[in-house]
Amino acid sequence: MSIIPGKAAVVGIGQTPFGKGLGRTEYDMGLEAILAACEDAGISPSEIDGLVRFDMESLDEEMLLSALGNPDLSYFIGTPMGGGGSASVLVHAALGIASGMAETIVCYRSRARGKNSSFGKAQNQGGRYWERLAADLPDVSGMWHVPQGLVTAFQEMAMITRRHQIEYGTTEDHFGEVAVTFREHAIRNPNAVMRMEMTLEDHHQSRMISDPLRLFDCNIETDGACAMIVTTAERARDLRQPPAIIRAGSLGAGSHHRRLSTLFDRSREEDSAARTGKRLFAQADLSPDDIDCAYFYDFFTSLVIIALEDYGFCPRGEGGPFVADGGISWDRGRLPCNTNGGQLSEAFIHGFNNNLEAVRQIRGTSTSQVEDCRFALVAGANTDPTGAFILERAS
To answer: Hey, what's the torsion of the CAs at 181, 187, 190, 193, to 10 degrees?
Structure first.
């Protein structure tokens, strides 16, 4: 039985402004977001005794120690993989709190990875990762995929998207509905980078990036940082903000989009996101019907549709009709999703900005607030080793 349920809570959130080519380092932005999260929670940075980061993060715990007042870290861990890490960081934080390894943990992501976001020549100093590939490709996926033209996530996800179209009849209209809906959410959000109205026709006329994915099917490129403070549920009651209780958290590894020879080697019902979802709901003693809003890793519109199916909000093949019926819309849907605009329209902080929006929903402060929101589900990328968690409003 998991030790997570009800033991920890998110008590502080912080972020920088989001934008394209901000001209800042990931250290600079990460520190600003962490200090803002501490201020939001009403704690001193020196009280932090745990830290959870992405393994691909260039801003590590040693870099933060002096700037945060030399806290005595008793728990620090990195979580691997790209989009899956956006949710799994909070699962590891909850485990650290529940096990007694730490009392106040910070999770964060700082990202300067856009076209004009380089702040140095080294591989981890910003910019697009595919423009910084080494001459040698020793990893198993790179050495086989890159020479065949699978260089970027756009190309890899295009193959997965086409597979879903072939198997279930998912259409360009369905993808467009996701993009248009999330843009509607972003328009109400002053933090969002993309706030210009979008129509289905606009989506269909945007240029093709990697068939069948168009420009408006792809996450935007932005700089920025986000952070969250996690502490014990007991302590959370005495802090500045209404706590968002971590009701459940689950991890799952399986097939991976960089290894396409195995991604479809098993039924999607047995893949990482679907297995993660089943464990998550069992741990929380909830069902998909209990969830008031959801936050999916929307690096591409098609993966939101697949995630609705992976996590049991609709049967296989019905994700497209679900979104076409307005199912993910804030003001009329049965499951409002990515009410901040997500990575398609708010910002691309490797999914971490979705985590913060889930906390706002629990607090009742979202710009697209779900009425009487009690449970919010957040999922990492469903094509990577992944993670997911459920936040609950404190009673």
So the answer is: 80
282 token code pair: 């069992």
What tokens does 379 get?
Answer: 């999922």
Instruction: Tell me how many domains the chain contains.
Output: 2
Q: Which two tokens stand for residue 390?
A: 């459920």
Residues 79 and 170 in one domain: no
Q: Are 242 and 252 in contact (CB under 8 A)?
A: no
Are 197 and 227 within one domain?
no
- Tokens standing for 93? 């934080």
Q: What is the pLDDT of residue 384?
A: 79
- E-strand spans in the chain? 8-15, 50-54, 75-79, 104-112, 208-210, 213-214, 223-232, 244-252, 293-295, 375-379, 386-393
Confidence check: pLDDT of 69 > 90: no
How does residue 256 score in pLDDT terms, banded at 50, 70 and 90? low
State the average pLDDT over residues 4-28.
Answer: 94
Amino acid at 100: G
Reported as a single tens digit per residue, the pLDDT across 81-95 is 667 889 999 999 999
Same domain, 371 and 262: yes
CB crowding 196-213: b at 16 or more within 10 Å, else e? eebeeebbeebeebbebb
Q: What letter represents residue 19's amino acid? A: G
Higher pLDDT, 99 or 147: 99
Non-local (6+) Cβ contacts of 350 within 8 A are: 54, 82, 83, 85, 86, 109, 111
